[in-house]
Amino acid sequence: MRRLSYSEAIAEAQxxxxxxxERVFLxxxxxxxxxxxxxxxxxxxxxKLGTDRVLDVPISENGYVGAGVxxxxxxxxxxxxxxxxxxxxxxxxxxVQQAANMRYMFGGQIRVxxxxxxxxxxxxxxxxxxxxxxxxxxxxxxxxxxxxPSDAYDAKGLLISAIREDNFVLYLEHKxxxxxxxxxxxxxxxxxxxxxxxxxxxxxxxxxxxxxxxSKALExxxxxxxxxxxxxxxxxxTVSPLDEDTILSSVEKTGKLLVLQxxxxxxxxxxDVSALVAEKGFYLLDTPIKLVTAKDVPIPFAPILENxxxxxxxxxxxxxxxxxxxxxxx
Amino acid sequence: MDGIKAxxxxxxxxxxxxxxxxxxxxxxxxxxxxxxHLYIGExxxxxxxxxxxxxxxxITSTHRGHGHCIAKxxxxxxxxxxxxxxxxxxxxxxxxxxHLASTEIGILGxxxxxxxxxxxxxxxxxxxxxxxxxxxxxxxxGDGATNQGTFHEAINFASVFKLPVLYVCENNQFGVGTRITxxxxxxxxxxxxxxxxxxxxIVDGQDVVKVFEVSGRLIERARSGQEPALLxxxxxxxxxxxxxxxxxxxxxxxxxxxxxxxxxxxxxxRQLGLTGLLSEAEAASIEQNVRAEVEAAVEFGxxxxxxxxxxALADVFA
Lengths: 330, 318
What we know:
Helix content of chain A: 25-40%
CATH superfamily of chain B: Thiamin diphosphate (ThDP)-binding fold, Pyr/PP domains
Strand content of chain B: 5-15%
Number of domains of chain B: 1
Number of strands of chain B: 7
CATH class of chain B: Alpha Beta
Largest interface: A-B, 44 and 48 residues
CATH architecture of chain B: 3-Layer(aba) Sandwich
CATH architecture of the largest domain in chain A: 3-Layer(aba) Sandwich
Radius of gyration of chain A: 20 Å
Order of helices and strands of chain A: EHEHEHEHEHEHEEEEHEEHEHEHH
Largest sheet of chain B: 5 strands, parallel
Shape of chain B: globular
Oligomer: heterodimer
Structural class of chain A: alpha/beta
Number of helices of chain B: 11
Distance between the termini of chain B: 43 Å
CATH class of the largest domain in chain A: Alpha Beta
Strand order of the largest sheet of chain B: 1-2-3-7-6
Helix content of chain B: 40-55%
Number of helices of chain A: 11
Shape of chain A: globular
Strand order of the largest sheet of chain A: 3-2-4-5-7-6-12
């Protein structure tokens, strides 16, 4: 099977859905070839399909995201891109107050079949305004689904599902994953939203992660295996709605939980997962839940500082070892 | 304009006025939860513009949206039920006055966020362009909205992509309690159209015949040539920003008196009468029917059931 990068998989998903359904169109900055979006996520599409349904918009996030909302409630299926997920703050009203509210406020009269996709995350010295992880802000809001693919195979399947979903989906791509290649089927396929994946089976401890942190969890798991610790890695894929069953089944098996989140701890998906297990899986736990998250500072520029602020594989290994010995000592 | 259109126009003008005055009474009596922002005095703007639209065309409205909804063909019973928070309301009691919608007849919602309807109407026009269905979108907004960033972004977007949308500014001289001369450095909003390379026109918003004619021309231009325009209706709201506003002394009595000499309902009745399109008997008949219709709407609202508590959990996702 041919290998595609994460960004190529994202482009292919959009291309295939546009070919399948003429209501699907794209809006964002420099999506048209030869640019093909900031990280190549739309490369090849306008060359193949023309520019009618690939719109390069003026830099006006609230305006063009709002235009996407208007198009979505009148028969089209827009896939709108923010060049960096951080810029979502500029479009907050059209997302939170309009798109997320409209179906409910109108008593179910319309649906909002719109995807808003954006590069997210840190670890590349992009500094304070281009390094946010925003999924927690929107997992919080009723009316929005939040999806984060961890590899190229998932990127294609989840994006196709997101485009076919009749509701507003925030689809967040991690910048560190764009050039990672793997085997990706040529045909169109879907991966269900709201369903987590068991990436690695294990018996001693569950690590719940998503997006780029899945890679770090798997690295840590490989290191820990050499030390005799068996780690199960759950990739959430969708952080809203949360796949409660998969998380609880895993904790039932291992009795220990570490949640690995790239971003800040406070009011986040990580604390949400913790609350779930504390409420519904209390008696399944042998040890307290452990959270590994970023430190509570804006993301700094210098690599040595950024690396200190963000989770690292070595840190995860150390936390797991600590939990395991705590369990043995207890 | 022919006799049929004239009667439709007069009916809608009178319907809005009667509905809003009744809502004012109900609100003062404590029968309506939340807030209402009344359109009394501005009727000619909504009616004149919407008289050029079909039920397939789109409008976005504002917090002051009862007039737009009625002008676009909204049913006063379902509107009244919604204002009362009843299950039979357009929004099943989940939206209320500020979010009234009937997407079936192109009403993409009243909106509680100033200028937020403008990008949405722009998107609806984009949709119409993609689907080649000949529809147009109209965004209604006030003078206050023209200072929001979304005003700029939405119109710029439409001007670049050549979209079939008409932006209608209802300049009632005030943004909440701030006079436009204190919030905006230019006198006429229509001047801003030049910044986007689109036509900007001004019309007397109290004269429904003029609004009908000028907006009709701009809507036809949008529909056939797919180009946006900005229309400024100079108008006036008789009531406060919202019912129950503690102090509306920002408007002077002299101003109020002057505007009321050009009442849009009285003006329309006289003009349409003079041009032979609406006889006194016809007007009287319309007025009687509309009064009965609004009373029936109040009855319908009062008799309608409240939503079930669990209705609150439905309609988040499709």
